[in-house]
Amino acid sequence: GINAEYGVVQLAIALQEEQEDHIQAAAAWALGQAGRHTPEHAKAVAQANVLPTLLQCYLRAGSSEDLQTKAKKALKNILQKCVHLPALEPLLHDAPPNILKHVVAQFSKVLPHDAKRADSFVTSGGLKKVQEIKAEPGSALMEYINIINGCYPEEIVRYYSPGYSERLLERIDNHQPIMTN
User: Is the Cα torsion angle 74, 75, 76, 80 positive or negative in sign?
Assistant: First the structure.
């Protein structure tokens, strides 16, 4: 299998438990190489739960520049092939915009073709999170968000948009009931 072939589990352990930045950087690089081949490779790497750890290595203030660079590149390599959405969902909540773009891109590739995934994306809070993302009009990120939103009825997208409940309450407050005698 892919895990044995690339030593994914051992690399994941090294990435998570090793104290030395240069060893973590080497593990990050190797995981990025392993995960970039096919969606199956990306899934094998993602299922070893390395994406959150790579993100931590990339964002951690104390990480060496080499580790940050390799962790970012590994994340990008794996994300661009990964269509295993459960492994991507935690990154929706934690990733900075430059990484989030790649995460949202993968959801925009899978959700239009998988109704079951699209349903679970709503119940897991993913759709709500996507509505909270601030994307520049006309950007690739905005395009991905629009593709995702296109998988759902308009009122569902509105319901999960920030400020919806406040706007609804305002409409109730401003509503003049028709009184009948």
Answer: positive
